[in-house]
C-alpha cells in the first residue's frame, strides 16, 4: 500500500502553509492571549548548521505547544547580518559584503523553509537593511541625548589582525574572539555606552530571572559585572602633598600591609617616578615598555612569575604609621579601583608571590588557627603541637585567606575577620582616612568599530559646534557603496576615505564638517531586535509601544550559552534604558531562557578543520526535517550536548512512519463517539494528554517523545491484536498523536491530520482536555483501626495524602460507631495503608 515518504509530505504541505499562513500573529482582532517565542537570530555566514537545527527545533516545540494551548504566538525570524566575518570574507573573495551577506541569507532561508519552523515570515528583518539600521541610529541618538553615549580617549583592546578595536567582552584569554590574534592595547578616541551606570540594576534585576534562566548564566552575568564591596583607604606619601587612595576588600588586614604597589601604566606611577633618580627612571621605563600590550587576564593570572620595579618612594600606613616601600608591578591594573593597592602578602596570594620574589616582609595579622564561630579549631589546648606543619606563608608560599582572629593589629586584636572589616573601616572613616565603597569589574561598552559593514554612527564633527547629532528626519545615514572603497583593515574606518560621503555641512552652523567614520558594534543591532519584530516595516517608529505592551517581554528565548554574557548583558542594558525613556514598560527583555547544548560528534566539537562535520543539508536530504527534529528532541534534556554518533535519525524516521501508518489505518469516521472506545487504550491516551503539558513546560521534550512512542505502540497493538482499526479509541489516540507530534514533526503531523479526514492546519487544533474519569488510578485498601481493632477498610488512591486519609477515616460510619463518646487522643496515619486511632474514657 501507500508508504511514508517524507520528501513527498514536505513538498505537499509547504505551499499549503504558505497559502494559509497559520503562523501569522498579526491580526489585531485576534482575542487569544499572547506568547512571544524567540530564537537568537542567526548570523548569515554560510548555510544553516546542526546547531541551528537544534536551537530552532527547540524554539519551535515551544511555539507550537503554546499555539495548541490556545495562544496567539509570535515566532519571528530575522538575520543579524552586519559584522566583521562578512567583511573579511568579502575582502578575501573580492565581492561586495552586501552581496555576500544577502546570498547567504537566501541560502539559510531556503534551508529554514525545508526544516519547517513555524515562523511568521511576514516579519522577517535584516539588521543590514537601512530600514533597520536607521533605528539603530535613532537608538544611538536617544542614548547620546541622555549622556549615555560619549567619546573618550583611552587605551583600548586592539586586534592587530582585524585592525579594529574590541570590547572587553570580545577578548577571550587575551585573544581576539573573531580571529584568535593576540590583542594589544592602543590609545584611541572611541564611542562608549555608559553601561556602568546600570551596573547595580543589571545585577539586582537578575533576581527576577531566578528559576527561569539557567543558574550558570545568572552567575556568569554576576561575575562579569563583578560587584565587589570594600573600602577606600588613604595613605600619605613622603614628599607628596596629596595622599594616595587604594581599594581593598580586606580593611581588616591593614596592619599586615608591608608595601604598596602601583600600576606601571598609571598616571600615579609616572608622577611618583618623576621625582626619583635617573637610574630608577631608566629601570621603570624599561619595565613599562615590557608591560605595554599585555592583556588584563595575563596580568592578573596568579600562576605567573611576578615582576616589578622599586620606585624608591614611601607611603605611610594610616593606622600604624609604618613606612612602606612603593613598587610598580603589572599585577595591579591601572583602571580598577585606584590603580594602586596596599599589599598584604600574608593574606593575599599575588602579594605573597611578589613579596617572596623580591624578599619583602610577610606579617600575619589574621590568625587562621584561632576558631571563630563555626570553624574547627586546629589548636585545642593553646599550644601548637610540634609535629603540626608550618602554616607561615613566608615559608609555605600559601597565603592565609581564611577566617580567623586578628593579631598584631593593635586595638583590633581578637576580633574575627567579619567583625573587624566594619570596625577598621569605621575607624578610618572617623579620621577622614577611608570610606566604605563598591567597585565593579564591568567597564563602559566600547561601541565604535573601524570597519565598513556596520551601522554608521549618526554624528557630525564640526570645528565650531563639536559633536552634532544628525537630525532625526535625516536618518538613516546610509552606508556609501562598497564599490570604490578599500575595505582592507588599516586602523582607520574605510568610510573615512569616502570623500563624498564623509564631507557634509554642519546641521547646526552650516559650515563644512565631517561625518563620524566609525560604525557600531553589531551587538548594538542585536540589543533590541526583539522589539523591531513587533512592527518590522514601520518607517515611523522603531517599535510601537502599544505592540510592546501586548507582546513583550519575550516569554521564551532560546539560544547558545556562548551568548551568556555579551548579547544578553547588552540587551538587558538597552531594555533598561528604554524603560527609563518611557518606551517600554518592563525592565528585563527575556522572561525565560533556554540554552541548548551543542551537537558534537564522537565526543568532540564539530568543525571543518577536524573533518568531523555533520552537514545539516546532507542530513536533511537523507532523513527529512521531521526525523532530524525528533532525533534532536529525543536525544536527551535540551541543555545537554547531543553526540551525533549516539543518536539514530533512521530510528526516528521509523517511528514517524509507524505513527503515520496508524493514522493511515484508522477506518472509523471523524464523528464516532470516543466514549464508546476501548477503555484500556483511552486510558493511555488520556494519561498522555494530562501529563505532556507539564513535561513540555518543564523543558522535558525527550520524555514527551518517549511517551508518544508508547502511545503509538499501544495504538498499533489495539489495531492488530485488540479491538481493531475501527474502534473509536484508535481514532482518538491517532488524533492525539498527530496533534502532539506537531510539536516535533510538523510535516508528518499535518499529513496524519489530512488522513484522519480534517482540513489543515493541525497547528491550530486546541490541545484536547484529558478526561479525569479515565485518569483514576488503581485503588489500594487502607485499614482503619480503633484501639488496635480493625473497624473499617477504605478504597483509596495510592497517592492519597496523610491528611486526606485521616479525614476519610474519621468520617467513616463504622469508625464513628466504634469511637462512640470517647475522646480521640492519638491518630497515627501511614498513607495509603493504615490509620490507627487511640481513644480514652
Ligand atoms: C588588600 C588585600 C588583602 C586584598 C587581602 C585582598 C586580600 P576584587 O574582589 O576583585 O574587587 N586590588 C585592588 N585594586 C586593584 C587593582 N587595580 N589591580 C589589581 N588588584 C587590585 O578585589 C579587590 C582586591 O584586589 C583588593 O583587596 C586589592 O587587594 C586588589 F588579604 O587589598 B586587596
Ligand atoms: Zn557647526
TrEMBL record:
Localization terms from the record: Cytoplasm
Sorted UniProt keywords: Aminoacyl-tRNA synthetase, ATP-binding, Cytoplasm, Ligase, Nucleotide-binding, Protein biosynthesis
Motif ('HIGH' region): 42-52
Domain of life: Bacteria
Record motif 'KMSKS' region, residues: 605-609
Chief place where the protein resides: cytoplasm
Domain Methionyl/Valyl/Leucyl/Isoleucyl-tRNA synthetase anticodon-binding, chain residue ranges per copy: 678-801
Binding-site positions, ATP: 608
InterPro entries in the record: aa-tRNA-synth_I_CS (IPR001412), aa-tRNA-synth_Ia (IPR002300), Leu-tRNA-ligase (IPR002302), Leu_tRNA-synth_edit (IPR025709), M/V/L/I-tRNA-synth_anticd-bd (IPR013155), Rossmann-like_a/b/a_fold (IPR014729), tRNAsynth_Ia_anticodon-bd (IPR009080), Val/Leu/Ile-tRNA-synth_edit (IPR009008)
Catalytic activity reported: tRNA(Leu) + L-leucine + ATP = L-leucyl-tRNA(Leu) + AMP + diphosphate
This enzyme's EC code(s): 6.1.1.4
Domain Leucyl-tRNA synthetase editing: 222-427
Record family assignment: Belongs to the class-I aminoacyl-tRNA synthetase family.
PANTHER family assigned: LEUCINE--TRNA LIGASE, MITOCHONDRIAL (PTHR43740:SF2), LEUCYL-TRNA SYNTHETASE (PTHR43740)
Name the UniProt record assigns to this protein: Leucine--tRNA ligase
Gene, per the UniProt record: leuS
Amino acid at each position: 500500500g501507500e508508504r511514508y515518504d517524507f520528501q513527498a509530505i514536505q513538498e505537499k504541505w509547504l505551499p499549503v502553509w504558505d497559502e494559509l499562513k497559520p503562523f501569522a500573529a498579526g491580526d489585531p482582532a485576534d482575542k487569544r492571549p499572547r506568547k512571544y517565542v524567540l530564537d537568537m537570530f542567526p548570523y548569515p555566514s554560510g548555510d544553516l548548521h546542526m546547531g541551528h537545527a537544534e536551537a530552532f527545533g527547540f524554539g519551535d516545540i515551544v511555539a507550537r505547544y503554546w499555539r495548541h494551548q490556545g495562544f496567539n504566538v509570535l515566532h519571528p525570524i530575522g538575520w543579524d547580518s552586519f559584522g566583521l566575518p562578512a567583511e573579511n570574507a568579502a575582502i578575501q573573495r573580492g565581492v561586495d559584503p552586501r552581496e555576500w551577506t544577502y546570498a547567504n541569507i537566501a541560502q539559510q532561508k531556503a534551508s529554514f523553509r525545508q526544516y519547517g519552523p513555524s515562523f511568521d515570515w511576514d516579519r522577517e528583518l535584516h539588521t543590514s537593511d537601512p530600514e533597520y539600521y536607521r533605528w539603530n541610529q535613532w537608538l544611538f541618538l536617544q542614548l547620546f541625548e541622555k549622556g549615555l553615549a560619549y567619546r573618550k580617549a583611552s587605551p583600548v583592546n586592539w586586534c592587530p589582525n582585524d585592525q579594529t578595536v574590541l570590547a572587553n567582552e570580545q577578548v577571550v584569554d587575551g585573544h581576539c574572539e573573531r580571529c584568535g590574534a593576540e590583542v594589544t592595547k592602543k590609545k584611541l578616541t572611541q564611542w562608549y555606552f555608559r553601561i556602568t551606570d546600570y551596573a547595580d540594576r543589571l545585577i539586582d534585576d537578575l533576581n527576577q530571572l531566578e528559576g527561569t534562566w539557567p543558574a550558570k548564566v545568572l552567575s556568569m552575568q554576576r561575575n562579569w559585572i563583578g560587584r565587589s564591596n570594600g573600602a577606600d583607604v588613604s595613605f600619605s606619601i613622603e614628599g607628596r602633598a596629596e595622599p594616595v587612595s587604594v581599594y581593598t576588600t580586606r580593611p581588616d588586614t591593614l596592619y599586615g600591609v608591608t608595601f604598596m604597589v602601583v600600576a606601571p601604566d598609571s598616571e600615579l606611577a609616572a608622577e611618583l617616578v618623576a621625582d626619583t633618580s635617573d637610574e630608577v627612571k631608566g629601570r621603570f621605563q624599561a619595565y613599562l615598555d615590557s608591560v605595554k600590550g599585555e592583556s588584563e587576564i595575563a596580568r592578573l593570572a596568579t600562576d605567573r612569575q611576578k615582576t616589578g620595579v622599586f620606585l624608591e618612594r614611601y607611603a605611610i600606613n594610616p593606622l600604624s604609621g609604618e613606612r612602606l616601600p612603593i613598587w610598580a608591578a603589572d599585577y595591579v591594573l591601572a583602571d580598577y579601583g585606584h590603580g594602586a593597592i596596599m599589599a598584604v602578602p600574608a593574606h593575599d596570594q599575588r602579594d605573597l608571590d611578589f613579596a617572596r620574589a623580591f624578599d619583602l616582609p610577610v606579617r600575619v595579622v589574621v590568625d587562621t588557627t584561632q576558631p571563630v564561630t563555626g570553624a574547627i579549631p586546629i589548636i585545642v589546648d593553646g599550644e601548637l603541637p610540634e609535629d603540626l606543619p608550618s602554616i607561615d606563608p613566608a615559608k609555605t608560599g600559601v597565603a592565609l585567606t581564611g577566617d580567623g582572629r586578628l593579631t598584631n593589629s593593635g586595638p583590633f586584636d581578637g576580633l574575627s575577620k567579619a567583625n573587624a572589616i566594619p570596625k577598621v573601616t569605621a575607624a578610618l572613616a572617623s579620621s577622614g582616612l577611608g570610606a566604605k565603597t563598591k567597585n565593579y569589574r564591568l567597564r563602559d561598552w566600547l561601541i565604535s568599530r573601524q570597519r565598513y559593514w556596520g551601522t554608521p554612527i549618526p554624528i557630525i564633527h564640526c570645528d565650531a559646534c563639536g559633536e552634532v547629532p544628525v537630525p532625526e528626519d535625516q536618518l538613516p545615514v546610509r552606508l556609501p557603496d562598497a564599490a570604490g572603497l578599500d575595505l582592507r583593515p588599516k586602523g582607520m574606518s574605510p568610510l573615512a576615505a569616502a570623500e563624498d560621503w564623509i564631507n557634509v555641512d554642519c546641521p547646526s552652523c552650516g559650515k563644512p564638517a565631517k561625518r563620524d567614520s566609525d560604525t557600531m558594534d553589531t551587538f548594538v543591532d542585536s540589543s533590541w531586535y526583539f522589539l523591531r519584530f513587533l512592527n518590522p516595516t514601520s518607517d515611523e517608529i522603531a517599535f510601537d509601544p502599544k505592540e510592546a505592551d501586548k507582546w513583550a517581554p519575550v516569554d521564551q528565548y532560546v539560544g547558545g550559552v556562548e551568548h551568556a554574557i555579551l548579547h544578553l548583558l547588552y540587551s538587558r542594558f538597552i531594555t533598561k534604558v528604554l524603560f527609563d525613556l518611557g518606551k517600554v514598560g518592563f525592565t528585563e527583555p527575556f522572561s525565560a531562557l533556554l540554552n541548548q547544548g551543542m551537537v558534537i560528534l564522537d565526543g568532540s566539537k564539530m568543525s571543518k578543520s577536524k573533518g568531523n562535520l555533520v552537514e545539516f543539508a546532507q542530513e536533511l536530504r537523507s532523513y527529512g526535517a521531521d526525523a532530524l527534529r525528533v532525533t534532536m528532541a529525543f536525544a536527551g534534556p535540551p541543555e545537554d550536548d547531543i553526540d551525533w554518533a549516539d543518536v539514530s535519525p533512521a530510528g526516528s524516521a521509523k517511528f514517524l512512519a509507524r505513527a503515520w501508518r496508524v493514522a493511515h489505518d484508522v477506518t472509523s469516521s471523524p464523528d464516532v463517539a470516543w466514549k464508546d472506545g476501548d477503555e484500556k487504550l483511552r486510558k493511555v491516551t488520556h494519561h498522555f494528554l494530562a501529563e505532556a503539558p507539564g513535561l513540555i513546560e518543564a523543558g522535558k521534550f525527550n520524555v514527551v517523545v518517549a511517551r508518544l512512542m508508547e502511545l503509538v505502540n499501544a495504538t498499533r497493538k489495539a489495531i492488530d491484536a485488540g479491538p481493531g482499526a475501527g474502534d473509536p479509541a484508535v481514532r482518538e489516540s491517532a488524533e492525539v498523536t498527530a496533534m502532539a507530534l506537531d510539536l516535533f514533526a510538523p510535516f508528518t503531523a499535518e499529513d496524519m491530520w489530512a488522513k484522519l479526514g480534517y482540513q489543515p492546519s493541525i497547528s491550530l487544533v486546541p490541545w484536547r482536555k484529558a478526561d479525569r474519569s479515565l485518569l483514576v488510578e488503581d485503588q489500594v485498601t487502607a485499614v482503619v483501626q480503633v484501639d488496635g481493632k480493625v473497624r473499617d477498610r477504605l478504597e483509596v488512591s495510592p497517592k492519597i495524602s496523610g491528611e486526606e486519609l485521616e479525614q476519610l477515616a474519621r468520617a467513616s460510619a463504622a469508625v464513628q460507631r466504634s469511637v462512640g463518646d470517647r475522646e480521640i487522643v492519638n491518630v497515627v496515619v501511614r498513607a495509603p495503608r493504615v490509620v490507627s486511632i487511640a481513644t480514652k474514657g
